[in-house]
Amino acid sequence: MEKAGAVSAAPVPFEEGTPMMRPMFVEFPEDRACETLDKQYMLGDSLLVAPIFKESGEVEYYVPEGKWQNILTGETVEGGKWQKETYDYFHMPLLARPNTILAVGNNSERPDYDYAEGITLYLVNMEDGKATETAVTDLQGNTVLTVKARRNGKTVTVCAEGRTKHVTYKIMGNEELEVAVE
Fold first, then answer.
1. I need a labelling partner for 178 at 20 to 30 A (CA). Which of 19, 89, 117, 128 fits?
2. Domain Glycosyl hydrolase family 31 C-terminal spans what residues (predicted)?
3. How far is the C-alpha of 4 from the C-alpha of 21, rounded, in Å?
4. pTM of the model
């Protein structure tokens, strides 16, 4: 998701009326293969989820163009084609879109905690010359952290505003890149 221009805070989907869980064709209206997909969905604008409905663990799903990152296995998946895989009960296809900043909290015990405290921001398959941004909100929906990233060559430059204490940045999918925090 490339954003142009200077924006003080990334738009939060619920403020725009965009559902958090949506069909593939809503996020990829130009991709005709997404028109009839009914067994996978986008979670937010960055995560592709393909639930497994067969006891055998087999799943067949479509990945739109780009280099997607399976966040459970660490594998890079080339898009623009169908994938057929088998998973156990503890895994499933959960792919992060290219050029994504994926915010992962540090508390797996409860859903209501300070999301910005100890957060890890994964910079996923950043393409050269591309920019992206994300926002982290508090429990009331107020933006407490805005992060922008741009890749130039082998460096991803990150600019964060707000509650930046205890934030960790990690590269996912382009391990040869370096992070420069402004």
1. 117
2. 17-102
3. 25
4. 0.85
